[in-house]
Amino acid sequence: MERARQDPAAFAGQMLGDFVARFPPQEVPAALRHEAKRALLNVFGCALAVARDPAVDAAVRVLRPLSGPGAATAIGRPERLDPMAASFVNAMAANLLDYDDTHLDTVIHPTAPVAPPVLALAEARGLSGAAALHAFLLGAEVACRLGNAVSPGHYARGWHITATCGVFGAAAACARLLGLSGAQSWSALGIAASQAAGVVESLPSAAKNVGVGNAARNGLFAALLAQQGYAAAPAAIEGPLGWARAAGDEPRLAALGDGLGERWEFGKNTYKPYPCGIVLHPVIDACLALRAAHGLAPDAVAGVRVRGHPLLLARGDRAVENERDARVSIHHSVAVALVLGAAGVREFSPAAVADPAIAAFRAKVRAEADDSLPVGAAAVTVETTGGAALQAVVTHARGSRERPLSDRELEAKFEENARLGGFGGRDVARLIAQVWRLDEADSVRPLLRALSAPRS
Amino acid sequence: MERARQDPAAFAGQMLGDFVARFPPQEVPAALRHEAKRALLNVFGCALAVARDPAVDAAVRVLRPLSGPGAATAIGRPERLDPMAASFVNAMAANLLDYDDTHLDTVIHPTAPVAPPVLALAEARGLSGAAALHAFLLGAEVACRLGNAVSPGHYARGWHITATCGVFGAAAACARLLGLSGAQSWSALGIAASQAAGVVESLPSAAKNVGVGNAARNGLFAALLAQQGYAAAPAAIEGPLGWARAAGDEPRLAALGDGLGERWEFGKNTYKPYPCGIVLHPVIDACLALRAAHGLAPDAVAGVRVRGHPLLLARGDRAVENERDARVSIHHSVAVALVLGAAGVREFSPAAVADPAIAAFRAKVRAEADDSLPVGAAAVTVETTGGAALQAVVTHARGSRERPLSDRELEAKFEENARLGGFGGRDVARLIAQVWRLDEADSVRPLLRALSAPRS
């Protein structure tokens, strides 16, 4: 381990394997353990919101006939699946709306690929909440660190980093949960290197879901194979013909070990208050603030001018034909925030996109680049029919690292998502309580059972 | 389709999807259809030979509890698995000894990842031998063409091309077998782009098996998802952030369409007569010829001098500690060929490696580079204790494209492999006949059932 830390370029896999196998729960700072629960609460809601989405239906239709005994929950659904199949379905659902969490330095969404296989395995074997939570945390940390090591070249080449690094995180987490040795965990990570896949080109398509789902499913597979004696090459990650160089050109392998176990990448995790492109979040914040302050009726608005860093326009200024467009549209984001006073899952649904009032309002919005505004900031000016100009400037959006969502805000987000998944008030409150007390649960089973399809 | 052929760089996926969905069986030359059967006979033997290998046992131990209803055969074994799990186990077994077929231009072993999912799906659904054979052929062609498009940079970067291109071939083949449309087949290929994984660094390890097994399993998965409506980005393969550029730097996309359906890459497929590195094959041929001509007793041999192109030494001159070393060792290959008069699976087994007589003979072998010999050639000189020097030179090894294995030689290879898998004479003869007549079979089931564990 010491040798590995001193030369991570030569011993990256071994170092991470030891970390995964040995890092003790009692050395995890309380705030970080709480962050892991926040991440789970958030991701459960994201999966519940789309539990009956056609994309999830289709995945279940394919996997159910191929699934072994249903030891694991498909979140928000009546079906039970084998742990690998459940990992796939839950991971792709968790990430489907891009409403899950983000490690901003790498743009990895760490919880979707890592938490589902941990929970499916823990459910199948009746393991404790504390064990699952610790395994998840270590796995998510491994995913983010691998992302750091290959960023920014990896994503820029076309690799979908949530999927490609997610499989390492899933393998690490499952290795820990299975109680694998350092050497076996090292093997699991090396086997993950033979399974890292997913391309950026396909992000606006269902193939994205496949990449994220596979990361979860194959990470679990890697750990199970390592437990049965499968090994990878010692330098499967860091070697001259290993994954980091193949997919990352000139990886910064030092990022894997730097402060490992002391400084936590997962501590930087952020949560979205709105299910749309993160650059749009300050725009929505500004619109909601203006609406709250001035009670603007749509007819009273003559026009809306949005200014932001050029990145905002590059990512968000486009025509809206469907809900995928809407989720990256300045015009749609402004319209729903000002007209409906909300920007949740429903406001980015096909129905909202097709709503004539929203479509008409989108046409009132103009976007302009403004170099004087920093990345992450936006200024919104509403011009009223009465001739007034009302302005709001947001420098740090809700949910950014500077303004993280509070626990209560995450609960509210979960409540809305759970309602979309058909869960009523009492069930929702119980689920929230179960997540906050997950580390006290002797088994994850009651929580997972409660996350299956609601009693209707 | 025409537009696509004229500009494969822009329409690669669409072109391949149309090819897979539409190319008619009656346009396949008879020799090529026969080649597909040769490939199957060969790969079945390779899988049978290792059906009880610990690596196959371990994969079955992991997958069986996660497997759905056992609709498909695990070759040479009593277990039945769901088609995705069977695809994994059979593909990894087929490739385990590196004794399967080779498309030499790309070093892809095309049959291992492509045939198992086709056969598992055909078995599960009771489809005909002709349908399976045609689907397999189209899929293998797609795999080889993708390999051409990204070679040689892809492998040189560290991507294990059998796995990474194999998943496209498996997806294509399963798409055809499922009767998907051109658009759906295009989607299946695009989904495969989100699943292409496997690193060269791990070739001397079990992680290699995982990559090859996953190619088969995930190719089937891609086709099943496409059938349920999943799509990828239109340019998932050829786009600026698609797979070919991410993994191949500057792909030669023209190689995908050039002569498609007229000139067949799969027609170049070759089969190994010996389960070891292909550069060692002319050395073994020469030794067997010398032994046959001179009846050399081991004690009568004072020394053996092997000369070959520097590539032979680069790949084959190494110490032998285990069977993996033996399979790439000039010294071991010479020893078994001259001492035992054979170079089959048993001669590269751990028992043969540890045999004191073989170990002693290995020490008698010297290897020298000789620039005057072309790649693929070798000269062997046996110096006898009586002072004679007996020489044999082989320019093209058995099994090379210039000296392909005959059907009878492939049958003999199959017979030996099947015996290792526990099959007796009558069963072996029937299996061979079933493969040669596969295109006349109303269902692949009788053949697959016959390939399951032998009656003992």
From TrEMBL, chains A, B:
<dbReference type="InterPro" id="IPR005656">
    <property type="entry name" value="MmgE_PrpD"/>
</dbReference>
<dbReference type="InterPro" id="IPR036148">
    <property type="entry name" value="MmgE/PrpD_sf"/>
</dbReference>
<feature type="domain" description="MmgE/PrpD C-terminal">
    <location>
        <begin position="274"/>
        <end position="436"/>
    </location>
</feature>
<dbReference type="InterPro" id="IPR045337">
    <property type="entry name" value="MmgE_PrpD_C"/>
</dbReference>
<comment type="similarity">
    <text>Belongs to the PrpD family.</text>
</comment>
<feature type="domain" description="MmgE/PrpD N-terminal">
    <location>
        <begin position="16"/>
        <end position="250"/>
    </location>
</feature>
<dbReference type="InterPro" id="IPR045336">
    <property type="entry name" value="MmgE_PrpD_N"/>
</dbReference>
<protein>
    <submittedName>
        <fullName>MmgE/PrpD family protein</fullName>
    </submittedName>
</protein>
<dbReference type="Pfam" id="PF03972">
    <property type="entry name" value="MmgE_PrpD_N"/>
</dbReference>
<dbReference type="InterPro" id="IPR042188">
    <property type="entry name" value="MmgE/PrpD_sf_2"/>
</dbReference>
<dbReference type="InterPro" id="IPR042183">
    <property type="entry name" value="MmgE/PrpD_sf_1"/>
</dbReference>
<dbReference type="Pfam" id="PF19305">
    <property type="entry name" value="MmgE_PrpD_C"/>
</dbReference>
